[in-house]
Amino acid sequence: MFSITDSHLGEQASHLVAGETNKIANLSNLAALLMHSIKGLNWAGFYLVDAPEELVLGPFQGLPACIRIPFAKGVCGAAARLQQTQLVGDVLRFEGHIACDVNTRSELVVPIVVAGSTVAVIDLDSPHTGHFTNEHAEQVEAVAQLVAQHWLNWH
Ligand code: SME
């Protein structure tokens, strides 16, 4: 159905952040890359671990979104808590889903883990049910790994 326009998302992401250590700048550009490289999205961005067991909204593209998400809630919370990619084909069937945008039908959330701790998640939303594939997950996991590798060097 929908496919990634460029299969080298991780490579593009790597070029985008090369030579810059400002976290907000790099995450902002990565959010833009995700939003415009993957078809059929209505939201793409980061939630960052702020307080213990709590995420706060980070750089993103799309409509204004929920600001704080406890680890106990939502698809983002599940990814952060379980440290596992969450591929949700139908958010209406995901108990505890947080509807920031009523148009969202499917989600892909990938945790960013540094030294065993979740530091952030990447959240992609689509208005299409069943939009995300394992290929999407692998591509976004490559971006998450890249961010994890740089995390402690970014300020
Ligand atoms: N729907 C998400 C919350 C984040 S927004 O979609 C941007 C969730 O259930 O975690």
Describe the structure.
This protein is 32% helix and 26% strand. By secondary structure, it is of the alpha+beta class. The protein has helices at residues 9-17, 23-37, 74-82, 134-150; strands spanning 43-49, 54-62, 68-70, 86-88, 106-114, 117-126. It has a six-stranded antiparallel beta sheet with strand order 3-2-1-6-5-4, sandwiched between helices. Helix 1 packs antiparallel against helix 2 (23-37) and helix 1 packs parallel to helix 4 (134-150).
Quick overview of this protein structure:
By secondary structure, this protein is α+β, with helices and mostly antiparallel strands. It is built from 4 helices and 6 strands. It has one domain (4-153): Beta-Lactamase (2-Layer Sandwich).
Layout of helices and strands, plus pairs?
Elements: H1 9-17, H2 23-37, E1 43-49, E2 54-62, E3 68-70, H3 74-82, E4 86-88, E5 106-114, E6 117-126, H4 134-150
Low-confidence stretches: none
Count of extended strands: 6
Helix tally equals: 4
| Strand order within the widest beta sheet | 3-2-1-6-5-4
Q: What is the level-2 CATH architecture name? A: 2-Layer Sandwich
